[in-house]
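To assess whether ligand presence alters the predicted conformation, the chain was also submitted together with cytidine-5'-monophosphate. Input:
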Amino acid sequence: MGKDVIVACDFASAEQVFSFLDKFTEKKPFVKIGMELFYAEGPEIVRQIKARGHKIFLDLKLHDIPNTVKKAMAVLSNLDVDICNLHAAGTTAMMQAALEGLTRPDGTRPLLIAVTQLTSTDQESMERDLLIHAPIDQVVMHYAETAKNAGLDGIVCSPLEAGKVHEVCGKEFLTVTPGVRFADGEAGDQKRIMTPAQAREIGSDYIVVGRPITAAPDPVAAYNRCVAEFCD
Ligand code: C5P
């Protein structure tokens, strides 16, 4: 798969997401569907967006015992999504079971990527609440390696970590990076940010961009700008 811009469709209803996607009459963007939209509208929203010709990253971050995750992944695989994800903290057994569940009878499957430590977790909360005492960047890299060794295709990480992840896990291991902002845009609640051009420079494979596109006065122009900076 080549580099692409994934639009985070963080909308609360089918109506809102379709009125947004209706604006894209030429190139159909790769779309990220998260928990809010999925839990509001159910699997039908995935089928409908897929039927409109979009690729889909279903961002549900599974984390449970291996057998449960395996069965859930088989359901997501039947929805024909392109990328789905889980928490690396579920350990190797859970990640391997997830891959088994995702694999269709013909051997094909969606890409599977891992969340390492959430960017909302910092050193202090990781030590206090999770009793993990290694430096957080080491923890992130260790989770990335564990995901790779389990057979996963990549991880979600900050664009600032993408270069290091490729060094440690290889060029083929995908880095999917949120926290992207235009040089002249608002950072909002994102703290560790990069422009699409910088993310490209550092080697991100996919950038996930939400509000800089969804809240732009002209979302199609903002999307095209992202594609021009990141992919072309
Ligand atoms: O609007 P914005 O560009 O900040 O959206 C980024 C998207 O990426 C959101 O859907 C957010 O939940 C997701 N995300 C993130 N940081 C992570 C993991 C996911 O911003 N570490």
